[in-house]
Amino acid sequence: MPRTTDSPPVPPRGQRVRETTARLRQRILGGEWPVGGRIPTEPQLVAALGVGRNTVREAVRALVHAGVLECRQGSGTYVVSTDELAPVVARRLTDDRMAEVVEVRRAFEVEAARLAALRRTPEDLAALDAALAAREAAWRGGRVAEFVEADVALHTAVVAAAHNPMLAELYASVGTALRSTVAHAMGDALEPDRYVDHSRLVEAIRAGEPQRAAIEAGAFLEPAAGA
User: Fold this and answer.
1) In the UniProt record, does the keyword Secreted occur (predicted)?
2) What is the CATH number of the domain that holds 66?
3) How many angstroms separate the CA atoms of 134 and 129, rounded?
């Protein structure tokens, strides 16, 4: 049927695909379709989004290519990441590039610590104290996997205290790489010579001393130091 003068213009196909891709991404980021979960079927998406089957198919294909979705033959399409950058970083992560990862961590974490010392709130300090306590408890218990997660949680809390959403998003993208550097530095056991005290970093942030916080954040991220 020809479009009447009162009908809204139909956007070009490429624009429809981009808009549909963005809508799918928003639902993933909003938690409607969590990581590990299956998204609705193609007919269900067509009905929910009000676009054609080909548009939905291309939008899903774009997110598969970006590493956000994964098509599993005979099972459906699943969310494998909420972040398009994370799979790219993970694919690049190899033992011979670990030094590069540490340098990237340093670039993020030194500035995050500096900003955290300027912007931290009482809630941020409480989160830092809790993360530090969990990290110390895991170390005392000799629990390697738990320590790695606790260490990552502490560094993430520092970044959160910087109150820079873009920095937090970018930092989250290197989460897998971050865990790998910590695990690589720790090895199979928590040896005393590998322990790094993070209490001074937390105290510098608490004291509102950005320069000292930045120095503390960078001190344990020299190439030979690992975590």
Assistant:
1) no
2) 1.10.10.10
3) 9
